[in-house]
Design a protein that fits this description.
about 40% helix; mainly alpha; three-stranded parallel sheet; 6 helices
């Protein structure tokens, strides 16, 4: 069983899409919020800069260099790990809409 097949089986939902490989420009046009739940102490989350350059709000774990890139509740949302319950609550509260206002305050 491939990893994708495992994920499709475990997370079957009308709100989850498995798109496969796509160009970065196409990807950022299709998402509303970027979630970066890093499990390791990454030095730099390049994907965060890419999301910002496309006007996409970011929700990221409070690990590694991400807190240096994201100003909590201003340029994005940071959450602590273990993150399963915290991230679920953030997404349930439509935090993406709130985070988007930090990046596009006139909307």
């Amino acid at each position: 069983q491939t990893y994708e097949a495992y994920l499709r089986k475990k997370f079957s939902s009308a709100n989850i899409f498995f798109e496969g490989f796509m160009d970065a420009e196409d990807f950022y046009q299709r998402i509303h919020v970027l979630v970066a739940p890093s499990l390791v102490q990454e030095a730099l989350g390049r994907v965060i800069f890419e999301a910002y350059s496309h006007g996409i709000p970011v929700i990221a774990s409070l690990r590694g260099g991400m807190p240096e890139i994201i100003e909590h509740n201003k340029t994005g949302i940071l959450f602590t790990c273990p993150f399963q319950s915290v991230l679920g609550k953030l997404l349930e509260c439509r935090i993406g809409d709130r985070a988007r206002k930090f990046i596009h305050p006139t909307q």
